[in-house]
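Morning run. Coffee first, then this:
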Amino acid sequence: MIRVLHIIGSLGLGGAQVVLQRIVKHSNPNQFEHFVYPLRSGNRAVSIATNVICNPYRNYDPRKFFDILRICRENKIDVIHTHLHKDAVAGLFSTFFLDIPVVVHEHGAILMPGFQYHLFRFLFRFLYRRAAAIIAVSNASSCRISDILGQSPSMLSTIYNGINLDEFKPDPEIRKQIRSDLHFTDEDIVIGFIGRMELIKGVDVLLDALMPLMQMNPRYRAVFVGDGSILASLQKRTHEAGVDDAIRFLGFRTDVAEVLNAIDIGCMPSRFESFGLAAIEMMSMKIPLICSRVDGLGEIAGNGVNALILDPISPAEITSKILTLTQDLSLRQQLIENAHAFTRQFAADLFIEKIESVYGRVLSSPSKR
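And here it is:
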């Protein structure tokens, strides 16, 4: 039995948390036992069915680091798997005290602006050699890591995130029920957004596009799934524009696959996206996608092939693309078919197989520290 300690910033809503949830859920229970140590224990929006070890400490309390050392020793941990930037630094520092290989799973912090991410990149340059493996979620992230380090280290590889294809497939009966719950009719055209309510996701631009569109044509509706720092301001703007009846803010949902059934057109106008997990989920659900080409999204979406690309990311461009998909049914069907076929390579079992192979490789390789 291989024991893996996952260190993550929190179990709040986010792509890294969803990926961790899927690793734990789909890995072989006869070969792997997973432990999860969130550095912030307060917000547990994402449920992890495994050994979750909580701590009572405030942010930046150094006792968390000593907790990591204690957990590893008491539970005879074989591999440390870090998922976000702060825990990556903590995990790499632990190698000065523990003879345990550390896998750094880079979900996007390496690309982010801001002081804390700049500090992370600075520390990462000095510590990366202590990693047994570095996983990038996209080639864009991998290239950025190589740029920061001035080289492409041998322990660096790209593993795209995976989804449960059996879960993310359209269901007409669920569609009927969800649309009824949302008070939408069969004639309504529902635009959907799934993700954190943050400026980097471009959700503000989407709202700017939707409000005048809905005032021109009452058939258009929208569903926003997710929570975040600008949710309240988006709701306020919606109310002030008088389109409350047309837009549903559902907050964090654990039944994303079911909610997706209600959506006719998906939109991801992200200003930053290390991979684009929601894009793969929408494509698998046969929802035609409008998205930006930033970072990892550019590796998923091909304009006119499996999505429509926003260039530029603007309300007018989003409106134009929505109208195109509403009116051009042939193009819409082509995008749906191509996107659905494309997502077959992101099956969860293939993703887990690659992750588990990393564990096996770092355990069988001589220590490089």
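The mean pLDDT is 93. Good start to the day.
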